[in-house]
Amino acid sequence: MKQGFQIVMITTVLMVACCQSGIAQKKTGYKDPAAPVTSRINDLLSRMTLEEKVGQLSVLLGWDMYSKTGNAVKASEEFKKAIAEQHTGMLWATLRADPWTKKTLLTGLTPELAAKATNAIQKYAIENSRLNIPMLLAEECAHGHMAIGTTVFPTSIGQSSTWNPDLIREMAAAIAMEARLQGAHIGYGPVLDLAREPRWSRVEETYGEDPVLNSRMGEAMVRGFQGNNLKSGFNIASTLKHFTAYGVPEGGHNGGSVAVGTRELFQSYLPPFKAAVKAGALSVMTAYNSIDGIPCSANHFLLTDLLRKQWDFNGFVVSDLGSISGLVSNHQVASNATEGASMAINAGLDADLSGYGYGPALLDAFKKGLVSTSVLDTAVARVLRIKFEMGLFENPYVDVKKAAKTVRNDAHVALARKVASASLVLLKNKNNVLPLSRQLKKIAVIGPNADNIYNQLGDYTAPQDENAVVTVLEGIKAHAGKELEVQFAKGCAIRDTTSSGIAEAVALAKNSEVAVVVLGGSSARDFKTEYLNTGAAQVKATDAAVSDMESGEGYDRATLDLMGRQLELLQKIVNTGTPVVLVLIKGRPLNLNWAADHVDAIVDAWYPGQEGGNAIADVLFGKSNPAGRLPISIPKSVGQLPVYYNLKKPTNHSYVEVDGKPLYPFGYGLSYTSFEYSNLNIAVSGAQDNLVVKVKLEVKNTGKRDGDEVVQLYIVDKVSSVVTPVKQLKKFKRLSLKSGEQQVLEFELNADDLKLFNQQMNWVLEPGDFTLILGGSSDDVRLQRDFNVQ
């Protein structure tokens, strides 16, 4: 009898337990991976407090959220406090290392330790938050994950110089893999600002001056980052920067006012963002600037009407660092933090990169009725959607061993060299000085950028193991072998004029058969520079110790001249009579007038990344044939600005001192071989939205070397109801041709390629005549023909 009673009791307990388990499962429906994402979001939202919701929208600065002791890493007391008091749901730049964050090779994290750190952060957040919500971690990823031990690729201006979206997509996938394996979920990038103001400090972060080239590069980055499965463990969400028209500040002042009309906004500045959104981008970052008096971070038309209603964007919008607070302090359109927070979130800005733009201010705005429950829940839902779609509720952790093994692997280093080689632009090659003769016995390598690892990497770069970066000097030595003697002299600094080794460099050039002079600029930050709370450098003209830095966020220029005594160094070396090859490592177009007239050969490398030295040496010695093309025009004078190729009609006329043309136009670049275009055929069919214009031509390598040609197709709208550009890039293709090889190339234009934004502010295809131009640059007409649209 007793045994039977025990069986009944056990059965009853099991039934109650099962019942309770069922109730518990119903209560935590958001944890059910089989449930639809929308259902999981709604269920979780229904359980969250006001404070927890606001916390999900706060993106705190992440580098202080871990503590490191030897090889042990754990969540820091600051992070524990953020979870307890702010319920924060996102971090930014947790793995970032640079002078601003004060994370060095010693105090920062290797990829293995980075994976341990993000795992520790996730574990603490999940176990110590009421609803066990995982963290969302964002990192800077424009030309490599900005963390110690990752692969450093060329900066974006170099990436676009490849004119090869497929290659950039491959690069983006490698960056995403390295970031995700260390625990990141979002990559900030691509930067889609049009760079039409070269004095601006952030030109290096852009893809140049053209909306079509920017669009194709942006699409490639988004698809490479995100892949086809966010749960793959190798992909990250892409954040588009900076929405919008950020790259043309008046006077070149970073974050300054822009003067852009509505039609120009739609025709030039918005298309790259639209293309990237259509490619699937899951996040967008607002810009610091205002447009027509409305700050981008409080612009309802941009963030809601356009982005969501017209473009069907389904991701989340994040502020740039401190830009919500900037509504009060900078733009002065809000009287206090509460008002600024309400303006931003009501406009459609979901997440606050800073942690102080929303937080208490948003709580206050909600309690005062300035923000509705619907608006708040919508913003939170957009953030939670990414967490669910990435599978973070089921699998928030990463494999530490895999991170240690895979980040900066041999394949990624080889890819960095491939991208750098493809990005190099040959601007001049008098008497075929390049490639360098194999008969040379003595070569001089001279200049401040010839053997400086940080000067060739660009902004948003972490501290580096010196053995991981190949400088120009090292690349040349590796190619030289035993027969060629290579000697080096720095000559001068980038900016500092107080000391100089010009005499030593000149003597070295005199006794050499050729001098490779490596000049330009630098975005290399140092620990002496002071930084604003946005991370931009605070420039002081009276600094006693002058760093090389003349580019990078915050370093705007009044001129584009070579700084310091660089031009003096170049002139004295040229005067020795020794043939000179000028290699430029820099982040923006510089004044090359004297060099263009007097130097034998010029190679533009931008910031070529960790394999830049090998890539440059490959080109100098002819191992690779340069085929990079300029993504931005190089002016003769700042007095010409703006000098972008696709200006509105009428064409520029000459000044008293100089003509109106750039020194080197958009799309320009030379090769060690030659190409011939022929047999153009244009076939027009359909009308309006069904219009198809098929273009066919033949391209032949008529030289003695194998090489790549970048075929560029431009359109001129001959008569239009509104003023249109003098010409517009519409299609391009980089193709490889062996010596003597001929290839048939086809392009297809559709209605969208020929539409304009008319007087009624609508996109329309107007009937009429168009001129089609094919060539090797915006100023190189190889084939041209008119066609008519009925």
UniProtKB/TrEMBL annotation:
Bilayer-spanning residue ranges: none
Any one GO molecular-function label of the UniProt entry: beta-glucosidase activity
Key words, A-Z: Glycosidase, Hydrolase
Organism superkingdom: Bacteria
InterPro entries: Cellulose_Degrad_GH3, Fn3-like, GH, Glyco_hydro_3_AS, Glyco_hydro_3_C, Glyco_hydro_3_C_sf, Glyco_hydro_3_N, Glyco_hydro_3_N_sf
Residue intervals of the Fibronectin type III-like domain: 709-778
Example GO BP: glucan catabolic process
Similarity field: Belongs to the glycosyl hydrolase 3 family.
PANTHER family on file: BETA-XYLOSIDASE (PTHR30620:SF123), PERIPLASMIC BETA-GLUCOSIDASE-RELATED (PTHR30620)
Protein name listed in UniProt: Beta-glucosidase
Organism: Pedobacter caeni
